[in-house]
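# nightly structure sweep
# worker-07 picked up a monomer target from the shared queue
# config: single-sequence mode, recycle default, output format = structure tokens
# input follows
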Amino acid sequence: ECGAGQGLSAMAAWIRERDPSRPLHYENDSTYRDSDFFSRMYASHEEVERIGQRAEEPLADPELEAHRASLPFLLCEYAHAMGNGPGGLSEYQRLFETYERCQGGFVWEWIDHGLPKRTADGRPYYAYGGDFGEDVHDGNFVCDGLLFPDRTPSPGLIEYKKVIEPVRITGDSAAGTITVSNGHDFLGLAHLSFAWRYEVEGELIASGRLTVPELAPGASVDVPLPAAPDTAAAGEGFWTVTAVLSADTAWAPAGHEVAWGQFPDAARPRTTPSAGASAVVARREGTTVALGPAVFDAASGELRSLSGLTLHQGPRLDTWRAPTDNDEGMEWVDQTRLAKRWRDLGLDRMRHRVDAVELAGDGTFTVRTRVAPAAAEVGLATVYRWSAGENGELRLDVEVTPQGEWQVPLPRLGLRLGLPAGLGLARWYGGGPGEAYPDTRAAARIGRWEATVDALHTPYVRPQENGARADVRWAELRALPGTGSGAAGLRLTAGGQPLYFTARRWSTQELDTATHAPDLTPGGTVWVHLDAGQHGIGSQSCGPGPLPRYHLTPEPTAFSVVLGALDEG
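# output follows
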């Protein structure tokens, strides 16, 4: 990273004379006269594809251009792994696999360089630049790895493992086959054992071994699936096929999962709760509105309680997330950093204005609002339409219509609600077990998962948006076993498209202002987010932002959720 010159040329000549078998790499010379690779740091997907197509801007000197054009392309750094991320790994990998010239890349970097420290009252945390009284430092820019400082894998490493898996497994349940592709360069598949699982609504119905023939490097084969097992279980079906090591190796034991693929059973698609007129009529009772098992504030339209469960805050539109390191960006990379634009517009302090509270003749209860930053010319007209069924469930249909000329994407778009702190156990059916965002979701597989609310949190060294689970069909919040909290539980079911689900013991605002782990103190509320959309992650802490298709552009949006109280236990 120091430019080019005669000194580097002399070193290159010495190395080649000393050991001509080793290729040389040096990135910071656009002519690559002393290098055996055409190399770039943090090139965008678009630039990598141009290079793969040999359509990059040519050098002025024909001789130097001919030399550079003869070289394989390498991303000597990419996918800056700082905080939540990196995003876009799958798209980079597809480029590497598509274009012969593209030889891959090196993620920066392996580990977060936080140092263990304790607060005055003894609470542990990881310190970074500026925490030791030094005047010159890079803040948390040293925390940019795929491992946390204690050497545990970050979600980024789990995502990376899935993206680069050397065996690709895809399926077509309608045809009753899977396709296995061997991505190894020199190795067959004899060292792997294949197995299948069939689940309905995340519950295991049947499983077994799968015979996959020996496959040459780079080859693919279609393998028949067994017939879907007969079952009386209701719900959507999923096939999952895994490839694991058959025997111990120097790097992993037998049974280590090398690759997996998952795909839905076309004969068992997902069904969603139907929307219709309310089976129970909403009625006003003084300062409240009653609708089946629910009680609302008559003035604000906010849900106060459901079947005796008191909410600390009823569901309302939320668009803010605690910016990630990639949202914050680096000034020397991007002068128009996204998080700064969000804050300049006021998305971190949205106002909620109630325009109308209506009891309709069809039994529904409708609340019309405008959600907007103060003194801004943009906003979100938001309509909440509540209806109740005879089985005690409560349905909320939300319609969001942007107003004004929006110049920035939204951080998130969904609902936030506050529940009693005693509901500390989360169960959900959807993507898991770890966090996932629009461009970091390759490693999320559909299933039934369970974790404490505390365990849903991802401990990034600098606190930031984290912990979302993608493609969630339903989620439950219950009391932890043995806590004796006495709090009833709540089940949240996506009424249409699956949602992102997040639960934490501090608000987004508290997460936003925290700089180190001890700044986050559990409060008396479990904050639950159900998002129709999230802005992508990208790697703009030192590289490109999310691809345009992962931008959460303000546009008319409708989504639904069904709320149902759970019995204790």
